[in-house]
Design a protein that fits this description.
The structure is a single chain. 36% of the residues lie in helices and 18% in strands. The chain is an alpha/beta fold. The protein contains 13 helices and 18 strands. The longest helix has 22 residues. Strands 4, 5, 8, 9, 10, 11, 12, 13, 14 and 15 form a 10-stranded mixed sheet that branches. A 3-stranded antiparallel sheet has the order 1-2-3. Strand 11, helix 10 and strand 12 form a beta-alpha-beta unit. It folds into 2 domains: 102 residues, Enolase-like, domain 1 (2-Layer Sandwich), CATH 3.30.390; 259 residues, Enolase-like C-terminal domain (TIM Barrel). The chain binds D-mannonic acid and magnesium ion. Magnesium ion binds next to loops. It holds the Pfam family MR_MLE_N.
């Protein structure tokens, strides 16, 4: 089965998405997500100008060889743009293979390891009462795992909280928003947030929180220790993870579980974290970490050290990634949890999908391949709209980790 076409579709149904469509001489096509929030066109060009021409004529069923060809053949290995482009090709080829075999992707990977995929939703509020209201709504919907993020008193802005009624979207159209941050105010406040959740709702739901790279290792150790009574399912991205050894300091002081990896794009970014068991969940995603082929490797390596998966799943990864991730999650033996923020309605219209949600559990469906497609006519109605992720500054103006 030969590849005869490979096209990049950039669309903005509620927010920007980049999709690769690969077509074969047997009339089967597959699609992959190539979305990199705030740098979408870099990946679109990497695919359109450098990768797609090399795909024409290749055997679509040689997924591993294509992965190795694109990874080693670029010479300039790794990085978010390269690995997102490779991921899109990989996802599309696995989609094609599933359609050719008339099998849902999870069966190609080795079948279901569980009945359904536990997902976590986002409860956010500008203050504790509002965050608790959102948390209660998620319990009502049947979520078993809920992430909570909240405004911090005396802090002008904060990570992860919707600005208005709509969905939380971090990217700002046409400009870079400057947000303010104070680790001291955050560290004094956030244990009160978790105490309020546990006082009101008890311990029946998994409580997650995203620190979003904001603390130093010793501050992260202090946070983890201070919130142990509230039994978090995980504290996420407690400190920037370029310095993987820095997590030893956190580990020495606290048993609060740690999740890291949404910004990782290869196994090398997390090798030390996993083999030294410095983390409990690996957050790498299909779209940013080289697709199914590479994330399988990362998950298998993690399983040797009892590290479980906790794939990143924000609304700024497309429904294509969500669909493929649910297949991966249903199969992967060392599954932990899957993030699911939901999507704008117009995005769900552009990307018809086979997945289902029922009381905090999701299933990818039985459609051959990953079960997600793209309505190209509808996608064309939503032109790209440049948007940028914010930056954070400390209260003295120092540029910090957003
Ligand atoms: C966040 C993301 O969902 C998460 O865990 O870290 O929303 C992240 O901020 C965005 O994906 C950045 O585009
Ligand atoms: Mg995160």
């Amino acid at each position: 089965m030969k590849i005869i076409r490979a096209d990049v579709i950039v669309t903005c149904p509620g927010r920007n998405f980049v999709t690769l469509k690969v077509e074969t001489d047997e009339g089967i096509h597959g699609i992959g997500d190539a979305t990199l929030n705030g740098r979408e066109l870099a990946v679109a060009s990497y695919l359109k100008d450098h990768v797609c021409p090399l795909l024409i004529g290749r055997d679509a069923s040689r997924i591993e060889d294509t992965w190795q060809f694109l990874y080693k053949g670029a010479y300039w290995r790794r990085g978010p743009v390269t690995m997102t482009a490779i991921a899109a090709v990989d996802m599309a080829l696995w989609d094609i293979l599933g359609k050719a075999a008339n099998m849902p992707l999870y069966k190609l990977l080795g079948g279901a390891s569980r009945e359904g995929v536990m997902v976590y939703g986002h409860a956010t509020g500008r203050d504790i009462p509002e965050a608790l209201d959102r948390y209660a709504e998620h319990i009502e919907e049947g979520y078993k795992a809920i992430r909570i993020q909240c405004g911090v008193p005396d802090m002008r802005s904060v990570y992860g909280v919707s600005k208005g009624e709509g969905m939380y979207e971090p990217a700002t159209k046409g400009s870079v928003e400057e947000q303010s941050w104070s680790s001291e105010k955050y560290l004094d406040f956030v244990p009160k947030l978790f105490e309020a959740v546990r006082d009101k709702f008890g311990f029946d739901t998994h409580l997650l929180h995203d620190v979003h790279h904001r603390l130093t290792p010793i501050e992260a150790a202090r946070l983890g220790k201070s919130v142990e009574p509230y039994r978090l399912f995980w504290m996420e991205d407690p400190t920037p993870a370029e310095n993987q050894a820095g997590f030893r300091l956190i580990r020495e002081h606290t048993v609060t579980p740690i999740a890291v990896g949404e910004v990782f794009n290869s196994i090398w970014d997390c090798k030390q974290l996993i083999e030294e068991q410095l983390i409990d969940y690996i957050r790498a995603t299909l779209t940013h970490a080289g697709g199914i082929t590479h994330l399988k490797r990362i998950a298998d390596f993690a399983s040797l050290y009892q590290v479980r998966t906790g794939c990143h799943g924000p609304s700024d990864l497309s429904p294509v990634c969500m669909g493929a991730a649910l297949h991966f999650d249903l199969w992967v033996p060392n599954f932990g949890v899957q993030e699911y923020m939901g999507f704008p309605d117009e995005a769900l219209d552009v990307f018809p999908h086979a997945w289902s949600f029922d009381r905090g559990m999701m299933h990818p469906g039985e459609a051959p391949g990953h079960g997600v497609d793209i309505d190209e006519k509808l996608a064309a109605k939503y032109p790209y709209d440049p948007a940028y992720l914010p930056v954070a500054r400390l209260e003295d103006g120092t540029l910090w980790n957003w």
